[in-house]
Design goal:
By secondary structure, this protein is of the alpha/beta class. It is built from 15 helices and 14 strands. The chain has helices at about 20, 55-60, 80-85, 100-115, 130-145, 155-160, 165-170, 220-230, 245-250, 265-285, 290-295, 310-320, 320-330, 335-350, 370-375; strands spanning about 5-10, 25-30, 45-50, 65-70, 90, 125-130, 145-150, 175-180, 205-210, 235, 255, 300-305, 360-365, 380. The strands form three sheets. The protein has a six-stranded parallel β-sheet, with helices on both faces. Strand 10, helix 9 and strand 11 form a beta-alpha-beta unit. Helix 4 crosses helix 5 (about 130-145). The mean pLDDT is about 95. The structure holds 1,4-dihydronicotinamide adenine dinucleotide and the ligand O=C(O)C(=O)[C@H](O)COP(=O)(O)O. The ligand O=C(O)C(=O)[C@H](O)COP(=O)(O)O binds near residues 50, 73, 97 and 347. The ligand O=C(O)C(=O)[C@H](O)COP(=O)(O)O binds near residues 51, 52, 73 and 74. Its main location: cytoplasm. Belongs to the D-isomer specific 2-hydroxyacid dehydrogenase family. PdxB subfamily. Pfam families: 2-Hacid_dh_C, DUF3410. InterPro entries: D-isomer_DH_CS, D-isomer_DH_CS1, D-isomer_DH_NAD-bd, Erythronate-4-P_DHase, Erythronate-4-P_DHase_dimer, NAD(P)-bd_dom_sf, PdxB_dimer_sf. Its EC number is 1.1.1.290.
Amino acid sequence: MTAVPHLTIVADENIPALVPLFQRFGTLRTCAGRSMTAEDLKDADVLLVRSVTRVSSELLKDTPVRFVGTATIGTDHVDQEWLHQQGIGFSSAPGCNADSVVEYVLSSLLQLAFEQRFSLLDKAVGIVGVGNVGGRLQQRLQAMGIQVLLCDPPRQAVEGGDFVSLDHVLKEADILALHTPLTREGDWPTYHLLNANNLPRLKQNAVLLNAGRGPVIDNAALLAVSQSRPDLTLVLDVWEHEPAVDVRLAERCAIATPHIAGYSLDGKIRGTWMLYKALCEHLQLPAELELGEVLPPSTVRELRVSDAEDLLTPARLVFDPYRDDRAFRKTLYLPADEQRLAFDRLRREYPERREYCTLKLVIEGDRVSSPLWAMGFDCAGGGA
Ligand SMILES: NC(=O)C1=CN([C@@H]2O[C@H](COP(=O)(O)OP(=O)(O)OC[C@H]3O[C@@H](n4cnc5c(N)ncnc54)[C@H](O)[C@@H]3O)[C@@H](O)[C@H]2O)C=CC1
Ligand SMILES: O=C(O)C(=O)[C@H](O)COP(=O)(O)O
C-alpha cells in the first residue's frame, strides 16, 4: 500500500466537508478566502480555494504550494497558465454544482411564470453557453416540452449542429439565460458579451437571467437600458463588481441574489469531493471515500402530490429564490463596506439547500408525472 504523505493543506474556510476528506493527508488549516495572502501559505503544500481567491504568481511565487484545487466550476480566478509553467498541479470541479444552477433557473422561471401569468410552454428560452449548466438546462426544458435556442460558438465551431448566433437569440428568445465562463481572450471572449450595443435588441417583454459571471454583462449598460425598457424582467445572481453591488440595478431586478445559484449542499460537497479525488490522483493514491459517505441525508425527504402539473410547489419546497432575494435586499442599503461584508456573510452562512433529486415525490392518483420527472425530482406513483 502507498503511504499517505504528511502534507500541509490550507483551505478556504467556506469549503464544506474538509475534515472528512482532507484531514487524512496531514495538517489542515483554514482561512478566509477573500483575504488570503502568501503569508497564509508559507508552509503549504496544497491550496484549496473557492472563487473569491485570486490564484496567481503574486499569491504563490514565494510559497511551497505544489497543488491547487478550486471547489468551483468557474476558473476565471486562477492563472492556470502560470501554474502550468511552474509545474504546480491544478484541478477545478467541473459540473459539481451544475444541477443546482439549473434548479435556480427553473425555480426562478416558475415563480415568474406564476406571477406574470404566462406559461413556459409558450416561451422560447435562449441558452447562451451550452456546457455543463446550459446543457443540463436544455435537457430539462426540452423534456418539459419547452422550446430552446442554443448559442455556443465554441461548440458550434467543433460540432456544427443546431446552434444559433447571439443576435438570433437576442431577437427571438423570450427568456435569455447566460451560462458562459468569464473569458477576456480567445476567439469568443465573454467579457461584456451583453453590452450597450446589443442589450437594446432584447425582445419585448424578455426575461434576462445571469447565473454565470457578473462581467459577462456590462452592468452599467444594463442599468441604463433597463431604465428605458420597463418591459424587461431581470434575474441576476452575479454582479460585475461583487461583492460590491449596484443598488439601482439590484432594485431593478425581479429576483436578485448574492451569487448563490450553485449553493446547494450537494453541489458544494460534490466540489470538495472532486478535489479530494484529484489530489489522490496527483499523489497516486487510491481514492477511498465515495461522495455518499460525506453527503448528509436530506431533511425534507418525501412530498405527496395529487396534481402532477403543479411544478412550483415542490420546486419552492426545495429552493425558493425569494428567500435569498429578501435576505439580499436587506443588505443593499448598508454603507458600501458593510454591504460588501454582508454579501460574503450571506454566502458564508447560507442555509442548507438540497438538489431537487433529494426530494421524493409520491404522486397520488393516475396523473401523468412527466413534467416532474423532467424537472429532476425523484418521482414515484401516478403511473410514473
Ligand atoms: N452563479 C453560480 O453560482 C455559478 C456560476 N457558474 C458559472 O457558470 C459558468 C458555466 O458553467 P458550466 O456550464 O459548468 O461550464 P462549461 O465549461 O461546462 O460550459 C461553458 C460553455 O460556454 C461556452 N462558451 C464559451 N464562450 C462562449 C461565448 N462567447 N458564447 C457562448 N458560449 C460560450 C463553452 O463553449 C461551453 O460550452 C462557469 O464558468 C461559472 O463561471 C458555475 C457554477 C455556479
Ligand atoms: O462553481 C462556481 O463556478 C461558482 O460560481 C460557485 O458557486 C461560486 O461559489 P464560491 O466559490 O464563490 O463560494
